[in-house]
User: What shape does this take?
Amino acid sequence: MGVREALARTWYSQGRALARPMLKLENITKRFGPVVANRRITLEVAPGEVLALLGENGAGKTTLVSILYGLYAPDEGRILLQGKEVRIHSPKEAQRLGIALVPQHPELIEAHTVAENLALGLDLPPVFSRRALVRRLAKLLEGHPLGVDLEAPVARLSAGEKQRVELLRALLNRPKVLILDEPTSVLTPKEAEALFQEIRRLKGLGLSVIFISHKLDEVLAIADRIAVLRAGEKVGEVLRQEADKDLLVRLMVGRSLAPPPKVPPPRAEVVLEVEDLLVPRHGFPVQGVSFALRAGEVLGIAGVAGSGQAELLQALAGLRPFQGRVRFLGEAWPQDPARLFALGVAHIPEERSMGVVEGMSVAENLALRTYRRLAPRGLLDYRIMEKEAEALIGRYGIRTPSPRTPVRFLSGGNVQKVILARELRGGPRLLLAMHPTYGVDVGAAEEVYERILDLVRGGSAVLLVSEDLDEILSLSHRVAALYHGRFVGPISREEADRERLGRMMTEGRV
Amino acid sequence: MEEALLRAVLFGTPLLLAGLGALLSERGGVVNLGVEGMMALSALVAFAVGLQVHPALGVLAGMGVGSLLGLFLGVFAVSLRANQFVAGLALAALGLGASGLLGKRYEGTPLPNPLPEGMLAMLALILALGLHLLLSRTRFGLYLRSVGENPKAADLFGVSVDGVRYLALALGGGMIGLAGAYLSLAYRPSWTDGMTAGLGWVAIALVILAAWQPLRAIFGAYLFGLLFFLQFRLQGSVPIPSEAFAAMPYLLVILVLALSGRARAPKALGQPFDRGR
Amino acid sequence: MRWELDPSPSPRKVLLTYALFLGLALLGLGLLFLLYGVPPLKAYALLLSPLTDTLGLAEVMRRTIPLLLIGAGLALAFRIGFFNIGAEGQLLMGAVGAAYVALFLPPGLWSLPLMFLFGGSLGALWAGLAAWLRARFGVNEILTTLMQNYLVYYLVVYLVAGPWKGQMVFGFLYTDRFPPEAQLPRLGDTLVHWPTLVLGMVAAMGLQVLLFRTPLGFEWRVLGENPEAARYLGLKGGRLILLAALLSGFLAGLAGVGEVAGIHLRLLEPAQISLGYGFTAILAAWLARGRPLGVLLTAPLLGLILAGGDALKLALSMPFRVVDVAAGLLLLGFIGAEALSRRRLVWRR
Assistant: This one.
């Protein structure tokens, strides 16, 4: 079945519409310069209904949410709340109208207590005492299934607890519409189940819920109706009972996904040896990390966000002090990023913004590791730099007007390719990669995988950290997990499946 | 001994007032490096009004000028999202320059009926307490702290980041203006170019020393006041050149900053806030 | 109505915004002239009067020299995020160093080179101290460099009133005149000490090349633009900042040497050595937008304002503070225009 047939089965094409929608978006368009983030999007949601917005990263979901919550003004189109047109020019206005948002990454004030954070969502008197505030909040939250310690500083909460605070805050003002933006990305499967319980309860109370996600299983588990966005447009809308995975994938991606690539077996030579590594950090230290990584092997490390995987990778990349024994090709491990790269250790950092200098050109960014070589007589040779850059731009399919274009003007996927091209060009013996496809569209992600696998086929070792279990399971020879900083595993890919890996992440048991 | 303490308080009062003013906006995330110029210009206006109308009215005029200058800084630091440090420095130069230019005609004229220093010193103490309560017990205080820590979150919560920052700059500007008025109407009831003598810069250092806490600023200001007094007192009585004493406060600022270490500043300090970035 | 980022402003809009803010700055200055009691147009004419004769142009040139040296160094320092506000003090340190060599070492051919070297080094040391305090204790360099200005100020006052006070100057607070070997040559009858001017131009061009054509400059730009990326690459941030601080302090020190060896020919009260060059140079550097070469244009512009301020002082006995006002307003106008041209007002909703 092609996209056209898939579309023919969708809800709107059959001429159905809600009789009395709670919220309706009509022909919303939003441009950023030449980029159209949302094109003529029409959506509606009824009271007591869960509408899922499904789409890949970069499909325009977050822009749409930002418009609904008053962060951006749409260029065209209108928004109707209970049949009346509304102009939402600020988050405050959105709240006044009864629209509440739980953002993707908890936006809380870390230095404040839970009570103070919640208070920001309340109608406060001009003067109040801390005690009165806590009493008032406790009363408001009485009998609510999700409990939190009101006097705890937010900085000490786990990611899941922080999201609970966000949800409670959103509910304090008794909203009519609740928007949840990728709410499960920071949750363990157990926490996610509790969240779904809560959504069902709220639905029963007549709340309209807009649930944003790129995960099919989740959407199928919770939604009543599913709208699919692709490249800024709504490409389809189906009722839950009419939907199946295959249809949704086709709508989301525009084609069927290629089967996962085959990874050749590793060689005998050991590239990286880690023994009893301990990385001090805020909260639980990362500890008990021991493994040996062989040439041509991919070790995937899973974990709920904030379990220590970022710190582990930073330590190995020379950006964070650690204790324990680490040997690379039998030699001692220098704790210096520049020397590590010279030895053949490449690093794709967690944040893309760390891996490039936005104001500098594509050519300069591609030369960030090798610029010294380009100045044999003291002065940088820009001609050679740009020539080398052109070769890499061609080989990695980086879409840029010219090597002199500042990286600022490139899309996220292309920026990631710049980083990849620079890090992989010298044929590193070891690649440390964190979320290599985060925020990249499906096509670019496949290219990224292909490049990494090329490297592996050539005999390099890869340490892959990701929150995407499918990514880990399809690329790795062995998998491990971090649970509250504790290293669990590794076990071989054959012994691992989603359930087992999930248990390793959330219970700390193999 | 008693005299030393009294002088310390009187020396420390303009520092305390200006420091509280800078502290207020910094808690909201806006660095104000214009304090020196704001103080100078409000001292002048306060003096002019005090001389021609009444000193009490002069105080109000000084505070008003301070508030206006705070709002003026806000145009650049808040609305335009310009570099706060550079905007503040420019304001410092502008204020110092404008006061030197316009104040020439008042140079050397004494104020016949100066205000009692003690009263204003009392007021400064009350303001410090008040600011402490404002920050910890009021809605505005909560909003201000939120905006200074995480403007993006505050914005999502529906707090008007720009509005809160403007209000903080206006209120803080008023306190800085009061510091200027104290100098020209009470402390040395007259006007001379450069009479702020670097107090504005010391006030900014005081904020860091006080770790952005109003109550700690009281002790910091009086400590500086005591040092100023000792410098004044020891001059001539010990075989150390007077310039060394004059330079002491500035050396102390550096030492204090180095020793107070990396106190925890409001997280968003100095960063312009842009929605959707 | 909303206030949004404009990703790609048109050149026309940028130009108009700058013109608007320049106009506002001039209007503000005019208002102050009016308040002071001078017809604004007359004051503006006087401010620009140095452009009308050679003597005036020489005045502008003379003021340009320190601005050029300091500005080029500050353009570099600002670019990498070291807010050196203490050029005034570093300049004075340079003057002290020059005076020491001139007054206390045997004069000779080596006098002038040694003065530049020693004066520059003292300036570098003074700026380096702030960089060290920042790296070691996390002290904000804006405050340290500012406080350091006061420290040198009193040091110079102490020197000229005390140990270094001239033998034959009686009531005045300055040292003896430098020996001829320690005096810089000037262009004709003017005060343009051309060797320092050449140094300034070389510095601006040299720093431009250093910043945009060498591996060191490459690292500086990475660090200035994205400190996180610098960390990721393993660049030594502290060392890079210290180096830039030393360079900018060195150049400010050279400027101080030029002032005492080229113009005053002795060490005297600090307020007379520098007419706020340190602050005006901040403006020159900021206007040059982090490009040392740009200072070749912005330094003369501000030199004109300083010379014009002098003209106002002479003709109308206006306080020299007028220069601070002009500089402050221009700086505000510039950062205002820079910021405004990058955003737009969306009127819909």
About this structure: Residues 108-174 of chain A form one domain. Residues 326 and 332 of chain A are 7 Å apart (CA to CA). Chain A has four domains: 3-98+176-253, 108-174, 258-344+427-510, 356-426. The radius of gyration of chain A is 25 Å.
